[in-house]
Design brief:
- With 170 residues, this protein is an all-alpha fold.
- It is 56% helix and 0% strand.
- It has three helices and no strands.
- Helix 1 packs antiparallel against helix 3.
- The chain is rod-shaped, with a radius of gyration of 32 Å.
Length: 170
């Protein structure tokens, strides 16, 4: 299910944009790549031993293999770190920390919180509009103009004292 497009009165746009499931897909792709790199480095390290190729050319190949395996291990570290940071399961409730980031899970949790805040905020805005309408109808004649009009921020201006008519006016 997609995210709402109308976030009023909380925000003009989605306050927590993104797709936690797509982030997790990318995390799993990086994790699979890291595993493949690790396997390739391991195969490269065991590919040529003295048993199979005992010569100067074999030794040169082995040295080159060790260097290449080291470079592959560094690539593994980067892909593995990226997979860990992105996360692989958006439903994972474990908290995201500096030592073990989990962006997919944290994004999913933040989006759930924003969704839970949206309906009460919309209900409160409806209640505010209803109340302001009643106040305008019942007390508008005694209030300064625009005293019940929300500011651009959505907040009401500070209350002004009512000017009640004297006993003769009643």
């Amino acid at each position: 299910m997609g995210r709402p497009t109308d976030w009023a009165p909380l925000a003009d746009t989605d306050p927590v944009p993104g797709d936690a499931y797509e982030v997790a897909v990318l995390g799993r792709r990086f994790q699979a790549t890291a595993q493949e790199i690790s396997a390739a480095a391991q195969r490269l390290r065991t590919m040529c031993t003295d048993v199979y190729w005992d010569s100067a050319a074999g030794e040169a190949f082995r040295q080159q293999s060790v260097q290449t395996a080291g470079k592959l291990s560094a690539a593994f570290d980067r892909y593995s770190a990226a997979a860990t940071a992105l996360g692989t399961d958006p439903a994972n409730p474990s908290p995201s920390t500096a030592a073990r980031p989990n962006y997919a899970g944290a994004l999913d949790q933040a989006q759930a919180i924003s969704l839970r805040a949206l309906q009460p905020a919309q209900d409160a805005a409806t209640t505010q509009q209803t109340t302001l309408s009643r106040l305008r109808t019942e007390y508008g004649q005694w209030l300064a103009p625009d005293s019940l009009s929300p500011a651009a921020s959505g907040h009401l201006p500070p209350p002004l004292p009512l000017v009640l008519p004297g006993p003769a006016a009643l």
